Amino acid sequence: MRRILFTFTLLVAAVIANAQIVNPVNWSFSQKQISANEFELILTAEIENGWHLYSTDLPEGGPIKTSFNFENLENVELIGEVNANKESIETFDNSFQMNLRYFEGEVVFTQKVKVNGTGKVSGYLEFMSCNDETCTPPMDEEFSFELKGETAQVKETSTPEKAGSDRNYWSIFFIAFLGGMAALLTPCVFPMIPMTVSFFTKQSKTKAAGIRNGIWYGVSIIIIYVILGTVVTAVFGAESLNSLSTNPWFNLFFALLLFVFAFSFMGAFEIVLPSSWVNAVDKKADKGGLLGIFFMAFALALVSFSCTGPIVGALIVEAARSGGMAPVVGMLGFSSALAIPFALFAAFPGWLNSLPKSGGWLNSVKVVLGFLEFAFAFKFLSIADMVLDLRIIEREEFFAIWIAIFIGLALYLWGKIRLPHDSPMTHLPVSRFVLGTVVFAFVIYMIPGLWGAPVKLISGFPPPVDYAESPLGVGKSQPAGFVTEGHTSGTMALGIHTGPHGIPLFDDYDKALAYAKETGKPLLIDFTGKGCTNCRKMEDNVWVDQEVKNMFLEEYVIVSLYVDLREKLPEDEQFVSETTGKKIRTVGNKWTDFQISRYNRNTQPYYVIVDHTEKELVDGYSYNSDPRSFADWLKTGVEAFKE
Known about the structure:
- About 45% of the residues lie in helices and about 15% in strands.
- By secondary structure, it is α+β, with helices and mostly antiparallel strands.
- The radius of gyration is 30 Å and the shape is flat.
């Protein structure tokens, strides 16, 4: 009985140990003949719930994209590129400061080929997957096809769009809707309401006709702006918009565009369309009927362009960064906000008496929007600066600029600054006083960012902590024995470099272990990845904690092993893994195999503490964004090392 119990315990332990290796994406391969000499190679990925598989289209500097490598083609010619059966989900990632695309659930990739008689295709695909807490390293999956001209059909897979994409579009719609509400309160749009009422009072002879005309007027406004979004998408293309969004010159162009809009809103000049366009549309509107109402909506769009143009431009900028149908969805949201009140006032002109009168407050709204567009322009400038690595707008400069802009906005709201077209103000309204105080409080909140504080409320807007003049924070320096790049004081251990928040790191395991022995400290192994979002979250939210940072600097030698490095190993260093049976081709493959074979794990981030004999001192640590928990784990490691 004891032997059976002992055996059962070992089996349970083995199952638990094996459970540490995750494989959230299962691949299957099939083929379908589509003509006498053409086939479709079908590569299907089944993705576990809660996980996502990165797309084949990702910008440089992000996670590892899914890629297909066709190595051996016997009597086979590839036709076009690999295509997915559905649109990928897209979100903006604050850690990488870029849009990332991924798939959830099931996705089917197809590659068309032309066969000359009997053919064979073989190769391998590379992919990376993540969930909300961890990521797998880049993984390989080999495939092969024999194409003999059989006519057996494979059932095609059709999977509906996932909710993540819908959520992204809803957020774009909501933001654009708010932009439309803001546009209503500008001096170019608000005064159009009485003109609308006057027009429809003449057009609508009965209450029923008034309601019908009002609805058509609102629909016409929506149609006009949605057409604009559709044209933008059609001209540039959904994928091109996504690629452009991370292009430095594209971001620079949008920054300059926002500067022009901001100065226009502040009263430096007005952006107006040729008067001949407006007059021509007005004449069409005078004809009446449904066509006349449509041209009345067109006239509204043209007349209000000097105010709505900058807002529409800014919305299209953000929508372009999301790609896909985002510009269309954005214009639908913006135009809906404009259309609803105009349609209601057109249908029920008596409501006009309930509106506040036009006045200087309309221009104030316009100026406030100008300050905001001025601030957002520097966001796009900083992205271009980071991509080009010019280091002109580093983290400190960004905060200094934003602090200055929002101080100016607070002073404007308090009436200390007057701009062109502002009306004289005899007293300070309560609304402006309260809003100015909120803006000034935001300024005070940003000030510590100049000295290296995380300022999480606007995380994703300023450059990351390591893109700064003082990555450690102003007035702080490396501990004795370490130096940062560009400095010569102290001594630098061979192979060490400055990592996030100025923490000294190794990237070579053997050198790190040797230095740990030399300094008498335990070795902390950081299994990470360049494209691991959750690894960046740990660095941004946990490593920055002062207690954690002090322990890193004083108690540990740290080595960061990147499992997604694509650098090829020399031929004589490549090998077949005894653990997985796969060929180890790259540096990243080497560290992945090291993690699996030593610690039976294949997800990142993952932290291990070892002594000088490479014995694991405490259980490993996975993703947990609580700095206190991580600090306690580090303390346990130090205590175990000293025993």
